[in-house]
Write a structure and sequence with these properties.
The longest helix has 10 residues. The protein has a four-stranded antiparallel β-sheet. By secondary structure, the chain is an alpha+beta fold. It is built from three helices and four strands. The chain starts with a helix and ends with a strand.
């Protein structure tokens, strides 16, 4: 799916890959997420999906950039998707 998204669009959509940050790394965001969910401060997170803004589909995140969907790695191992954390970065 990731390869197909890249072939068919010029947008930065990603699936289960390292993020393509617009502003900076999201370590602070994920530390806040860990605190919010009562998880250990050293919780490891996996980005499951990055969605870029697509004007043709009326998708516009902030001032036209990306949403990043993260889950704790332990939740991913257990196929537990009830604690996602979404980060918005825009230019």
């Amino acid at each position: 799916l990731h390869d197909q998204l890249l072939e068919t669009t010029h947008f930065d959509n990603r699936l289960f890959s390292p993020p393509g940050p617009v502003q900076n790394q999201m370590d602070d965001d994920l530390r806040i997420a860990s605190e919010a969910y009562g998880l250990a401060p050293d919780t490891q997170w996996t980005m499951v999906l990055q969605i870029d803004s697509v004007a043709e589909q009326n998708w516009c995140w902030g001032d036209a950039r990306c949403l990043y969907f993260w889950i704790p790695q332990e939740d991913l191992k257990c196929a537990r998707f009830d604690r996602p954390w979404v980060v918005l970065q825009c230019t």
